[in-house]
Amino acid sequence: MPLHVTINGEGRQFDGPLSIAALLEQLHVEPLRVAVERNRALVRRRDFAATTVADGDTLEIVTLVGGG
Amino acid sequence: MMSAEPLKIGSFEITSRLFVGTGKYATYELMREALAAAACQVVTVAVRRERMVDKTGRNILDFLDPAKYILLPNTAGCFNAEDAIRTAQLGRELLEGLGNAGASWVKLEVLGDRKTLLPDPVGTLEALKTLVADGFCVLCYTSDDPVMARRLKEAGAASVMPAGSPIGSGQGVLNPSNIRIILETLKEGDPNYPIIVDAGVGTPSDVTIAMELGADGVLLNTGIAGAADPVTMAHAMRLAVESGLLGRRAGRIPRKLYATASSPLAGVIGK
Fold it and tell me: Which one, B13, B131, B195, B257, has the greatest CB density within 10 A?
């Protein structure tokens, strides 16, 4: 089942079903170093494995950078 | 020799009154060295989209020991309350994952203008109320308007952080009278309420002036990161904070229009 997902403003395609945890693994992102929003709502880290990405979802994956 | 008395903001007790930003350093190594020279305890960080394709694979967290520093996530770059609230929540989630104490606080910044980076007072107040209700300890960036500062304190800001001058401008404390009024108003009957001058300071004397006025601390980034030698400037800023704090506590002499001799007038030879 193909999933069309917008991640950080960019359209991507994945094979579903897919959890947030599995998505981060596919993206080679260290889960402890990011925070994730799904459709403008925060996904708690403890829910990464149990949260399923749905077709059409908009995700924000953020990290810390230098700032003032 | 810094004061043994820590600065209290919400439940935080902070020993260094110099808060330093982590943006705009040429390298992470230089940032790490400058932070060490500043001897700061609180460092600000921003929340941004993960690039996923970083060629070097380096993350700022490889150069910021979460056991050594309290990270203060900001909402910099947000131009409305909703984005600022979402950014604060994402920052909290990130810091909780790191086990850093900074997870419970946020530097709130809601901007109103891209050229001056002046805060949007309406958006700031709106976001502040939501974040306070959500349990955040909010350190609130604002202009040097005394009425707005009072409103922010009333709405539950743990610290009000007036700008000395526009962010990154290096113009110093442009309106010391307003900073004095903010200090006087917000500390009336509440002398330990923390006020931090945030933004615009370019040089150690700017920092000292802010501290001499009675600010509890100074937050800066560009003044150090943009200096020709950031490590030396960080050291200078550390001394400036200490100097201004001690000068303030020591109690300056009153300004007088005319001179007062330091040496005795009596006993001068040839009379």
Answer: B131
CA distance B214 to B183: 7
Q: Least CA distance to B49: which residue of chain A?
A: A62
ipTM of the complex: 0.95
d(CA B162, CA B14): 19
> What CATH code is carried by the domain that includes residue B68?
3.20.20.70
Q: Tell me which residue in A31, A42, A63 faces B48 most closely, judged by beta carbons.
A: A63
| Structural domains in chain A, sorted by start | 2-62 (3.10.20.30)
Output the CA–CA distances (angstroms, integers) from residue B81 to A39, B128, B167, B269, in the order listed. 17, 8, 19, 73
Who among B49, B61, B220 is closest to A33 (CB)? B61
B153 assigned to active site: no
CB contact under 8 Å between B94 and A33, yes or no, is yes
Q: Which domain holds residue B225?
A: 7-250
B164-210: per-residue pLDDT in tens?
Answer: 999 999 999 999 999 999 999 999 999 999 999 999 999 999 999 99
Specify if B269 maps to a domain: no
Cα distance between the two ends of chain A: 43
The pTM of the full predicted model, rounded to 2 decimals, is 0.93
